[in-house]
């Protein structure tokens, strides 16, 4: 996977109306990573969300378009119609094997609401997120979920929902002191087609 470190707002790929209806590229767990060699220097500049260039990412060949943004690119935002939230960690604790998550688990019933700007990251304050941060350690506490509904009435998958369940395995701030800082995020994900009502 080759990461794109350009600002994604300048070159978003257009998704065909039926693309979200394509079958999953795989039923197995897939690994991915992004890297941002931006080299931000100085305090407080590297702590400011908007100072980090978003890194655009696509899961599978035609899966969710997401971008990693914010401090150390640790926030995940859905773009081009993909929705993003996290799963309830009581039902899906972070140690859960991704391979075991499927439609029988009623994924749609355990998506947390209240996400702002269609992006999830740190749980600071009342923000819905997938990690907490304390003593310079990132604690991954929730699975991220991205989803889109097949609305092409001519497609055999019409009325189904495609879920991508994402587990971030490592958030790596690269650099020390006051910088310069780069960022790397490692993750794995799995795709599931489910015949359920489209989550709002």
Q: How does this structure look, described?
A:
It is built from no helices and eleven strands. It is an all-beta fold. It has one domain (23-194). The strands form two sheets. Strands 2-3-4-6-7-8 form a six-stranded mixed beta sheet, with no helix packed on it. A five-stranded antiparallel beta sheet has the order 1-11-10-9-5, with no helix packed on it. Strand 3 and strand 4 form a beta hairpin. The protein is globular.
List descriptors:
38% strand, single chain, 200 residues, six-stranded mixed beta sheet, disordered N terminus, mainly beta, five-stranded antiparallel beta sheet
Please summarize what this structure is.
This protein has no helices and 11 strands.
Tally of DSSP helical segments: 0
Rounded mean pLDDT score: 87
Which strand order does the major sheet show?
2-3-4-6-7-8
Tally of discrete structural domains: 1
Let me know the largest β-sheet. 6 strands, mixed
Distance between the termini: 31 Å
Multimeric state: single chain
Structural class: mainly beta
Shape designation:
globular
**Helical proportion, percent range:** under 10%
As a percent range, the share of strand residues is 35-45%
Q: Write down the Rg.
A: 17 Å
């Amino acid at each position: 996977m080759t990461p794109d470190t350009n600002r994604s707002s300048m070159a978003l790929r257009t998704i065909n109306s039926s693309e979200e209806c394509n079958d999953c590229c795989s039923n197995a767990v897939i690994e991915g990573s992004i890297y941002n060699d931006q080299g931000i220097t100085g305090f407080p500049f590297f702590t400011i969300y908007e100072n980090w260039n978003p890194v655009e990412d696509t899961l599978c060949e035609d899966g969710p378009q997401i971008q990693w943004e914010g401090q150390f690119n640790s926030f995940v935002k859905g773009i081009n119609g993909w929705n993003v939230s996290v799963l309830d960690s009581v039902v899906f604790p972070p140690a859960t094997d991704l391979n075991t998550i499927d439609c029988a688990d009623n994924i749609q019933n355990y998506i947390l609401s209240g996400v702002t700007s269609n992006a999830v990251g740190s749980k600071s304050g009342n923000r819905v997120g997938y990690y907490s941060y304390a003593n310079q350690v990132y604690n991954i506490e929730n699975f991220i979920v991205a989803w889109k509904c097949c609305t092409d009435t001519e497609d055999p998958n019409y009325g189904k929902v495609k879920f991508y369940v994402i587990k971030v395995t490592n958030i790596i701030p690269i650099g020390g002191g006051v910088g310069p800082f780069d960022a790397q995020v490692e993750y794995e994900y799995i795709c599931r087609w489910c015949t359920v009502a489209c989550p709002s």
